[in-house]
Amino acid sequence: MIYVIATVTVIKGKRTDFLEEFRKVLPLVHKEAGCIEYGPTIDVNTGIPAQKLVRDNVITIMEKWESIEALQAHLTAPHMTVYRTRVKDLVVSTAIRILRPA
After folding, report:
1. Does residue 49 fall inside a structural domain?
2. Among 57, 60, 65, 79, which is disulfide-ready with 71 (CB 3.0 to 4.6 Å)?
C-alpha cells in the first residue's frame, strides 16, 4: 500500500470552483482498481501553534492506493486527463508526495 499527499494551490478565490470540478471526478476515481481512499481536504483554523498558516487557496488531496501500479493507472486514466483540462485555468501549482508505511 502507498499513500499520496497531493497539494494543489489554486488561484485566490477559486477554491470553490476547483472543488466543484474535483467532486465530479471523485466517483470515477473511487471505482478505479486499487483505490482505497481518495478525497479533498482543506486547512482548518485551529489556533494550534505548530500549524503555522491556514492556506485559503490550497486543497490537499489525501490518497491511499494498493500499489504504485494502481497510482500510475490513475494518473493516466482518461477521466483524469479530462479533469486536468477542466481545472488547468484554476491551478497555480501541484506537488505530490508518495509515501509507504514505515
Report:
1. no
2. 65
Are 42 and 18 in contact, with CB atoms under 8 Å apart? Answer: no
CATH of residue 88's domain is 3.30.70.100
CA distance from start to end of the chain: 11
Domain that holds residue 6: 2-44+54-99
- Residue 22 above 90 pLDDT? yes
Q: What is the pLDDT of residues 31-68, one digit of tens each?
A: 999 999 999 999 999 989 898 889 999 999 999 999 99
d(CA 84, CA 91) in angstroms, rounded, equals 9
- Per-residue CA distances from 3 to 7, 37, 88 (Å): 13, 9, 24
Written as one letter, the residue type at 8 is V
Please, are residues 73 and 34 in contact by the beta-carbon 8 Å criterion?
yes
Residue 51 confidence (pLDDT) = 87
Contact of 70 with 101, CB cutoff 8 Å: no
Q: How many domains does the chain have?
A: 1
